[in-house]
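Q: Hi! First time doing this. I have a protein sequence and I read that you can turn it into a structure. Is that right? Here it is:
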Amino acid sequence: MNLLVIKMTSLGDVVHLLPALSEAAGHVPDLRVDWVVEEGFAAIPAWHPVVARVIPSALRRWRRNLGQRATWAEIATFRHTLQTREYDLVLDAQGLIKSAWVASLARGPRAGLARGSAREPLACLAYARRYLAPRELHAISRNRLLAAQALGYPMGAEAGLRYGVTAPAPYPVAGLAADYVVCLHGTARAEKEYPESDWMDLLARITALGLGVALPWGNAREKARAERLAANLAGAIVLPKLGLAELGGLIAAARGVIGVDTGLMHLAAAFRKPGVGLYPATPPARFGAYAEADAPALINLSRPEELTPAAVATTFSRLFPGHSR
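A: Yes, that's right. Below is the predicted 3D structure, encoded as structure tokens:
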């Protein structure tokens, strides 16, 4: 079966589709998947063995440069690429007007989320087949339910969830300890951040366990915070600006991860990394990092008493008894 899936953004949403493809591969003979994804996230689908072709889109960049001839040439190439294959099913797993537009360009019957399940209800007009996936479910469960209905098999138990990715090669960073923790302090919304003073306290406790600390960043504000956190803290390294493939390799080789509600935490779950998620503003039941049942523990904390630096460090240290001090 030739399947085109459309899930373009964001990082966490892209990761959340992986278990649905793993499950589908176990039910649909000879499943071959092409995946349309925003160019900045194109590394992720390529890590899944059922994905035969990644088709990068650049809708964000194209919208900013519609007055340029090169933009329209890229759009024409993108459209041609979509139409080189006839698909047995085109599945829009995003439920947005932009993703429905992409689905409409492809050749094959179109399916997606029903009104009430799609984030933008007008997107439903593009689909011949529409399926319910309640929005109160975790995003992974919604994707699995959508794919199961669209492809005609029963959705399995949560205990059987598999991301199914092959981790990228480790990415070495000069000066970083062999045993290190990736600390994800950056997130798109201010209310989801963990207080900087609490990070300083927490990181001091983590380095006291004998672990190095890697601090990634994605913009100037996050870089400045990373530099403040690493100042005068032996064992803490502010990373250079990294692409997703390099960050994936860094996370895959880490001893563990501590992070706020951000897409990279979900990537850590896909790589079966132990760690702690910090959720001061969003409910983990809907947005938390979701570990495979037999993977090392990934614990999501949300109550105020759980989120103190001392409590977080204690929770984290229990994942690594050999480093407790």
